[in-house]
Amino acid sequence: MGNICCQDPIQTSPPIIIEHTVKAGRVSIVSTASTAIKDSSRRVVSCIYDYREARSGKKFRKGDSLQIYNEIDDEWLKVLNLSTKQIGCIPKNYVTEETTNEIQEWFLGHTSRREAERLLMSQETLTKGLFLIRYSENKETGYALSVLDFDDKDDFHVVHFQIAINQNGILIDSSVYSTLSEAINSYKRNGIISKPCQKPQPHLWDLDVSHKKQWELSREDLQLGELLGEGNFAKVHLACWKNSTKVAVKILKEQSVSTDGLLAEASIMKQFRHPGLLTLYGVCSQTEPVYLVVEYMTNGDLLNYLRNDDGNKLKLSDLVDMAVQISSGMQHLESKNLVHRDLAARNVLVANNNIVKISDFGLARLLQENRYNDNFTSNIAYKWSAPEAIFFREFTTKSDVWSYGIFLMELFTYGMMPYPGIRNDEVIRRVRDGYRMEKPDIVPDDVYNIMQMCWKEKPKERISFSELTNFFNEYSE
């Protein structure tokens, strides 16, 4: 296994000529090696992020004008790059209409209030006046301006301004403007804002367009690198796919799960697209050992992250934001009737900017079923499991809610072991008799109250993930 080196080599393709012929009222497109011709009848969009096709090496640069030839599906476009005269495929979230606000450096569209705060506070250099504009979560007001500021103690925080739209124009803080750009220029002159924060790259749900539905990958396309971690069922390596995309490869140990069962579960996991869930790109299952190829999360698992120096720097607002991300991901699983069965800080991964995602949300069922087949009592995570899961093997969304409550205790205590100082067998007995973890001093009272709502004895009385998401979204220090 060599060192990972994801390069971005410049590759060129022969120029393309597009010949239009009419057959039975339809336009057919023929590509040959020549120059490309712009078709004025086709819609033109603007590229707002750099993107490189892994298969061909074709590049799309920020600012390029792209003519749409085909909407492949709801996530991918086939386009003609009017700058390079090449045809290729690009994700829809990498382009926008040239007349919309999306093209502006300062506009971040459907970014929530908490996401805006996380993004502004995680910039490499914190400067007063860093800002972004987003759609408001209050539909009646149109937009919101989020600005980085600091208080008398030089502690940075984010201030939000509502931007209303009415018949008179755009209204911000009692001032009226004709456009958002005019408002921004005015606020810059007044020193309220300085420069836009850096836009994050959109998330890629697929390695490329060809692997959206075909998720069997070739091992030859993966260059394995350093070992990231190892557990009972798999070891995880950093890897590079086609010398272009960093990924994580989970190499399953022999006989940890059946191949047929894994592929059935992987087909389900591939369909889930939510920012709170780890993205599965594909599998290598033709020979042993089986590979699961997933997105690479730079900071590893949340449990170790909470316990190291970076985790110790997290503020209460950061922890609340992480709680929202995970409850939102679990809410999505709940809506799809998928039960995780093994929710814990060790199964949550951390990327840059304190982004966290649930991992193994499809694999957990297979692994736990194997545990039960081998030895029902030997490998259950007792301290995270609901009583009905321990005693009756009843796994539901409500048993996941119980586990989420334990996860919250881990999160808000910076990685404390649940039920500290109590053995597993003692935990089982005491929880069955009604015992619940006491509140550590570091945990806010209202957060502890929410934990207790996750630990109701009767599953139907426990809080829902929708309610949990709403609580942490509205949480105020």
UniProtKB/TrEMBL annotation:
GO terms for molecular function: ATP binding; non-membrane spanning protein tyrosine kinase activity. Residues 222-472 form the Protein kinase domain. Its EC number is 2.7.10.2. Belongs to the protein kinase superfamily. Tyr protein kinase family. The lineage of its organism: Eukaryota, Metazoa, Ecdysozoa, Arthropoda, Hexapoda. PANTHER family: TYROSINE-PROTEIN KINASE. The keyword Cell membrane does not apply. It catalyses: L-tyrosyl-[protein] + ATP = O-phospho-L-tyrosyl-[protein] + ADP + H(+). Residues 106-190 form the SH2 domain. This is Tyrosine-protein kinase. Residues 40-100 form the SH3 domain.
